[in-house]
Amino acid sequence: MHSFTEENYLKVIFHLFQVQKMPVQTNAIAGKLNTRAASVTDMLKKLADKKLINYIRYQGVTLTEQGKSTAIQIIRRHRLWEVFLVEKLNFGWDEVHDIAEELEHVGYQPLIERLDKFLGYPKRDPHGDLIPDSSGEFEIAVQTGLLELPENTRAIIIGVTEHSSPYLKHLEKLGLTIGESLLIEGITSYDGTLELNCAGKKISISRKVAQHILVSTKNQ
Amino acid sequence: MHSFTEENYLKVIFHLFQVQKMPVQTNAIAGKLNTRAASVTDMLKKLADKKLINYIRYQGVTLTEQGKSTAIQIIRRHRLWEVFLVEKLNFGWDEVHDIAEELEHVGYQPLIERLDKFLGYPKRDPHGDLIPDSSGEFEIAVQTGLLELPENTRAIIIGVTEHSSPYLKHLEKLGLTIGESLLIEGITSYDGTLELNCAGKKISISRKVAQHILVSTKNQ
DNA sequence: TTTTAATTTTAGATAAATCTAAAAAAAATT
DNA sequence: AATTTTTTTTAGATTTATCTAAAATTAAAA
After folding, report:
1. Residue B115 touches partner A, C-beta closer than 8 Å
2. By CB count within 10 A, which of A112, B75, B122, B169 is most buried?
């Protein structure tokens, strides 16, 4: 199997590629992993030798099919453990990321399959992120960023792209949690502040806060 | 916190000391951890520097109070995860050791306390081993080795001291599982084979098998 | 009690993952 | 197009946990 560290690199490369849709740069990886560019270069060579990434000097990296499927399995583990921690052990959605970060590296396939079954084959984790199935397939997501919608649209919060505890606590205080339905009552022309109505309550949120909220306008 | 490796050393030293009741030798540790005596010596120095063990060259080691309490916490984690794997994920009692061996190193205190609560504060793991409580106390055990009992004694199986899959599978096939009540009908004088009656069925087991079975003659 | 055997420790090497500092390549500016 | 800036890579060290081989110590046997 792959080392703890290799797994973290693959996961980070996968995430960055999903956001940028272009080869991932050394510096970006170093930033995410709190390490130095030189260390990243060393590891990239190793991952390339193992055929987990496509790596050309100075050109950034992409995951090979093998690397991608490994990364997806790690993400699957992470998200299933998050569901377990919230649903079964009653942790808050802002507390589970770091714990899952450790549990995700316990890589014994039957453990994950049984955990999945025990949890009732959940589709999404507590932050609304999709959980890949055992063959690594994601359900097709019909989701939009909250900022992309016009005034007077009704939508359901299905996820967040920022998982830090302060951010999640803030959302929770505002009552903006996964599954909540909201109406965009207005968008302030001066600074773009969003005026929302959620569960009958009027809420204003800045673009900085709205930026990380994913919504669906279907199935309401 | 302590590294994965340090934790494994502490756990092994604790176990060996429990069995031998005397300072643990370098070679014994090396044997249990599948490593070499020289590597063990290196690590012992490190653990001694951290005040987790009492170490005098050539004299073997014992755990300090701090080392002991760390070891007990790791054992607590291991046994709670084993309960989870058997009770919640329906693994067999012979399958859980290696998985728990990995999970036990996820060391975030609230995780373990909540897991304990979720499992209903179990007293023993699937092999009958006592689970220390959060302050590191073991319940006082009233247990005897099956071999120490005379003919015509009635007892309940409360644990096993050998956790290998082949051994546990064998016991399961014989119907000798934790909680079962048994009667020692006879002890063959030639080779000491035990003639048992368990749940109305007659079973013969060798001393080699009986040697790892712990029983209680109380609370029947 | 000397000799032999077993155990333990040192000395010196290796592999994994990291680092700093400097060189090389690519991208952005003038 | 030449220069500056940014990014990435190499070179060489460091740390952690391991190893082999040889030396030191202790225990057992003759």
Report:
1. yes
2. B75
B73 touches strand C (CB under 7 A): no
- Mapped onto helix, strand or coil, the DSSP state of residue B214 is strand
Chain A residues whose beta carbon lies within 8 Å of the beta carbon of residue B114: 89-91
Summarize pLDDT for A122-146 with one digit per residue, the tens: 988 988 788 999 887 776 667 889 9
Q: Tell me the CATH class for A144-216.
A: mainly beta
CA-based radius of gyration for chain B: 19
Q: Tell me how far apart the terminal alpha carbons of chain A are, to the nearest angstrom.
A: 43
Whether residue B191 has pLDDT greater than 80: yes
Quote the CA–CA distance of A26 and A42 in Å, as a whole number.
Answer: 10
Chain B residues close to A85, C-beta within 8 Å: 111
Ranges of beta strands (E only) in A30-89 are: 53-55, 61-63
Would you say the CATH fold of A144-216 matches that of A76-137?
no
What share of chain B has pLDDT > 70, as a percent?
A: 97
> Which residue has tokens 């055992």?
A134
Fold of A4-63: Arc Repressor Mutant, subunit A (1.10.10)
Best interface-test mutation with A: which of B96, B114, B117 has the largest number of A CBs within 10 A?
B114
Asked if residue B20 keeps its beta carbon closer than 7 A to nucleic acid strand C, the reply is no
Q: Per-residue pLDDT averaged across B121-128, rounded?
A: 88
Q: Which of A85, A156, A169 has the alpha carbon at shortest distance from A125? A: A85
ipTM: 0.79
